[in-house]
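Practice problem: Large ribosomal subunit protein uL15/eL18 domain-containing protein
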Amino acid sequence: MFSLRTAVASLSLRSVAPIARVAFATPCKFVSPVVVQARGAARSSLLGDLSNVPSSYNKKIRRGRGPGSGKGKTSGRGTKGQKARSGKGIRVGFEGGQTPITRLFPKVGFHNVNTLDLAPLNLNRLQAWIQNGRIDGTQPITMKELLDSRCVHNVPGGVKLLGDGAEKFTIPITIYVSRASYSAIAAIERAGGKIYTVYHNRLGLRSLLKPHKFAERGLPKQAQPTRREMIEYYRNPKWRGFLANEEEGMKEYHALLALKGVEGKMQKAVEA
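Answer key — structure tokens:
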């Protein structure tokens, strides 16, 4: 009978040598235990073993299922009282009948519906933008150039020019803003520049900032201020209002707006 001892005895070193050479010459391949397990179970996919991370879902709380769960009997509501009953419960802010905190203290301040929401702009920031080449100081500067260059990030109702850095401002410019402080006006004119404060309603301001939106219907006519406070402000030469020196600087401004309207039409045509 053929046995293991007989098989081992029949092997010789001469017959084993070629097998050993082949075994050592062939590189070993590492087989992942997962692949071996998948092959052993005759599965072609591991999608059945996938699961969400623990933080991606919350475990449902089973209430009223015995004291061992921690949420049995009264289900975490305690004993009796309005909050232990079924139904909608008490409203937000109700404090049991005592004066709630929303009525305990007086109101502070008020909201003035006539206040203009102006974006502040200081002279030191404007000068830095011009020196860095982000704004062309040789051309008239409007609120569109300020917004496009990100010198101001938002123009809700206009731009007010302020005087921080007025003592170091040396660039002669021509600028059109909604309002300006007296120190900013003095600094610009001391440097040899010009400043005009111009009124824009919501439609006029939108047409100035986004002229390509008005390519088909054309730019609207510039609106005039209607409130007495604004009329007096823009008529006052102290604030360089456009109604005070309309002949001097507003012709150039209207020509500039017309040019921006033509550029808006060209931009609209390119986008189409």
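Discussion: The chain is about 35% helix and 5% strand. Students who identified this feature from the tokens alone can consider the problem solved.
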